[in-house]
Write a structure and sequence with these properties.
alpha+beta; Butyryl-CoA Dehydrogenase, subunit A, domain 3; 3-stranded antiparallel beta sheet; 14 helices; globular; binds zinc ion; cell membrane; cell inner membrane; membrane; PqiA-like_proteobact; PqiA-PqiB_transport
Length: 424
């Protein structure tokens, strides 16, 4: 950090506004005056605090892996599973891809991120090239840490199973809950801007900066990986070596392509069964909607609503939202940019929670293995559904939110010219 500079220039990641951030007091954060996105936050211990949370999270995860996670008993048969047994059981079914979703999103990626946060925060001596690579991967992986969504899925599956037997939690359930909270907290108090400044000072700029104007109008671009401000024509960032452009390259094309693919896959995801229940010799296929209807008719209204919102409303509204953002950025609609920005943030934040139903089915299929009495196996619909969630997440990531503000800036410029013309 340059301590002699009282202001530090930051380009907003969401609206491209150049903001001069004053020296922050501990525990405060600076937000963008135009779109209110958090630009920089200053924690009391910006490196040690996330590392401490990450370390505790890892310990909890380790404990969670040692003991049984959840159990179910019905008609004298008791079934107890650990986190690793979930993977074992699911990989023996026809749709073993489901085990991969669980393995990566709720164990491997969060654990990897926690190790990275510890190594970066504790000032362990690591070659700079490796540090740069680790930080790059860390922030890319952040959206794929879904441990807390898996936990929510476990709770929902409990409600689904309560009518069929005795549900209980094992010794590792509480540590896993703590792991979820701690890993969320570790990410919360890790500031990307600070972390990169610690690895290397931001590259110096040889031009005058005008605060309150967009980067694009001053021939500047933001490095989306390390938040450095660079000249627009510089395609490779000297600090993190990531390549980039003033706006995401072919953002709309990528977003539309991913959106169309996910829309096509969304049809089989809803029409095909997501799981098969064998009960006393008879098989019953059920789609996502069947699950909601069953829960509703059982009287579990809140859970039926959660599943309905997460699995049916969120993916559909998300696709509509992204399509709307694309159209708006191309000049159709001309909505208030603040409203479009709100939709973007909602789509980004809520989208991953659709994974909850995939995790519910994972837990059901792993836990309900009672032979002839009752057993549940995943069906092909769940794989389609998981892929839809992943594709829509990518679609939201490839969309460049700055296009919304560019459109509005362009409109204002045209208006100003028109007004000048009218006065003249
Ligand atoms: Zn902004
Ligand atoms: Zn960079």
């Amino acid at each position: 950090m340059c301590s002699h500079e009282s202001h530090e220039h930051v380009l907003c990641t969401q609206c491209d506004m150049l903001v001069a951030v004053p020296e922050l007091e501990q525990g405060t954060k600076a937000t963008c005056p135009r779109c209110h996105t958090t630009l920089v936050s200053k924690w009391r211990y910006p490196y040690k605090q996330p590392a401490a949370y990450a370390f505790s999270a890892l310990i909890m995860l380790l404990i969670a892996c040692l003991f049984p996670f959840v159990k179910m008993g019905a008609a004298g048969i008791e079934n107890e599973i650990s986190l690793f047994q979930i993977i074992e059981i699911i990989s023996t079914t026809r749709y073993s891809g489901l085990a991969l979703f669980f393995l990566f999103f709720s164990l491997v990626i969060p654990a990897f991120c926690m190790v990275t946060i510890i190594l970066l925060g504790l000032q362990v001596h690591i070659p700079k090239g490796l540090k740069v690579g680790m930080s790059r991967i860390l922030f890319q992986m952040k959206s794929w840490c879904m441990a807390e969504i898996f936990l929510a899925g476990v709770l929902v599956s409990f409600v689904k199973l309560i009518a069929y037997g005795d549900i209980g939690v094992g010794l590792s359930f509480l540590p896993y809950c703590l792991f979820c909270m701690l890993q969320v907290r570790a990410f919360q108090c890790l500031d990307r801007h600070w972390l990169w400044n610690k690895i290397e000072a931001a590259p110096k700029l040889n031009q005058k900066l005008e605060v309150g104007k967009t980067g694009i109008s001053q021939n500047l671009r933001l490095c989306l990986v390390c938040t450095a401000i660079l000249p627009a024509e510089q395609s490779q960032c000297p600090r993190c070596h990531a390549r980039g452009h003033v706006r995401r390259h072919q953002s709309i094309q990528w977003t539309v392509a991913l959106l169309l693919t996910s829309f096509l896959l969304y049809i089989p995801a809803n029409v095909l069964p997501v799981m098969t229940t064998h009960m006393l010799g008879s098989d019953m296929d059920s789609t996502i909607m069947d699950g909601v209807i069953l829960l509703w008719s059982d009287g579990s209204y809140p859970v039926a609503l959660i599943i309905f919102i997460a699995s049916i409303m969120v993916p559909s509204l998300k696709m509509i939202g992204i399509a709307w953002l694309c159209l708006d950025s191309q000049g159709y609609g001309n909505r208030d940019p603040h409203r479009m920005h709100f939709i973007y943030e909602l789509v980004e934040y809520v989208g991953r929670w659709s994974m909850i139903d995939v995790f519910v089915i994972t837990i059901l299929a792993a836990l309900v293995q009672m032979g002839q009495l009752m057993s549940i196996v995943p069906a092909q619909g769940v794989i389609f559904f998981g892929v839809v969630v992943i594709l829509t997440m990518f679609a939201a990531m490839t969309f460049d939110p700055r296009l919304t503000w560019d459109r509005c800036e362009k409109k204002n410029a045209v208006k100003a010219v028109e007004q000048e013309g009218a006065i003249g």
